[in-house]
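User: Before I run my own analysis I want an independent prediction to cross-check against. Here's the chain; please return only the structure tokens and, at the end, one sentence I can use as a sanity check.
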Amino acid sequence: MNSLKIDFTNLEESASSKEPSCIGLFYRARISYFIDSNNNYAHQERMIPLLRKSCKGCSQCGNLRDMLEESLPYSPPLLKNIKDGGTYQLQITNVSQDWETGLADDWDIEFIEQKESLSEPTTTQ
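Assistant: Structure tokens:
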């Protein structure tokens, strides 16, 4: 009679290793100039999410999306010198820590321009 032995020690490690690595959230900048129906001149800057290039879903990106949504009413991320058609990654910058606890107590969310195109594969020679 054969007995079956199950090792439960590595079960937790294998479950956590299945989560994909985060590649970040990417956006395409679109700038529009137009005159509306009331003859108002308008300048509009939009950041359109690139779903195929962005992370498919992890806890880190979910938290970043939540922080972006929460910051919009009172402190939207600054769009400095954006270029129409440029690719940008949403990142946390300027993290400051509480000196007593060491926990992060303030940070900024910024769109950082990506220099190389995401659609072209990088080759090393």
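Sanity check: The chain has one domain: 21-113.
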